[in-house]
Amino acid sequence: MGLFEKFKKGLRKTREFWSNEWTKTLSAHGRFDDDMLDDFEEILVRADCGVPASEDVIETIKEHIRKTGDDSSETVMKVVKKRIIEILGDKTEIEIVPGKLNIILMVGVNGTGKTTTAGKLASRYKKEGKKVMLAAADTFRAAAVEQLKAWGEKTSTAVISNSEGTDPASVVFDAIKAAQARGTDILIVDTAGRLHNKKNLMEELSKINRVILREAPDANIRSMLIIDATTGQNAVIQTEAFSEAVSLDYLGITKLDGSAKGGVAIAVSYLAKVPIVLAGLGEGVEDLEDFDPEYFADSLFEE
Ligand SMILES: Nc1nc2c(ncn2[C@@H]2O[C@H](COP(=O)(O)OP(=O)(O)OP(=O)(O)O)[C@@H](O)[C@H]2O)c(=O)[nH]1
Ligand SMILES: [Mg+2]
Fold it and tell me: Is the CB of 259 within 6 Å of ligand 1?
């Protein structure tokens, strides 16, 4: 299956929601007058695009009609799609620097898909012939280490771990030492789910960061916030809160396949200063793709 086909398949529920609602509105109003645009804005908000981005899209449509006088639905849809691609920004991929240790720190609230995405990423990089290692720095939740080990087995990737309850920063320390000794290219650090307002957990994350900076100052260090599309506007709130609390480089958006709330990618991109780089499109090891703004937008509108 091609990449676009995968996006299309993954975004089926979101696309169905958009196209049903839009078809209804289009046939009810026929043309893009103010009433129609009000309905349109409501659809965008209900599709979890968030109020600021939805208002922006509506403004863009109004300006287009004012300038060109063309309010045919085909042209307006093209304008909407173009604006959505602009909001999503340029396609960005995770930067892997050859000849260096690259460390990817996975963070986020409970259950967003950190461990799964870490496992999928390990598989991807192994396939590319890289030396990969996983660090089980979620020592908080029982079974978290076992879950990551299962991904290690599935992807033939070394997993550095310790027992439940040990200091996660010490696991990261061990993992960095092991990665340095083995000439690892990419070390993916899985961390415990945490709320941005839970002081101890956020401090734990800062400590992990300090250990990484101290023990691997020359490494290419990247942190990635994993958000779950099915949580809608909560994902937006999490992105804002984590951006304030820790330094983020990337966003990964998971479970796009499981919900009609794919629009959350638009809401997040409108507010966040970091790019979405990954799209989780299912639970399987292959269900991870680089986030592609054009494919994403095309998948929303494709009949
Ligand atoms: N459908 C779907 N399910 C996903 C995706 N990513 C993760 N999941 C599922 O979401 C659930 C939670 O995933 P985990 O990877 O355990 O999440 P986590 O962030 O590590 O959770 P904690 O460690 O508890 O904070 C699992 O059942 C995964 O299979 C995705 O892209 N699509
Ligand atoms: Mg986990």
Answer: no
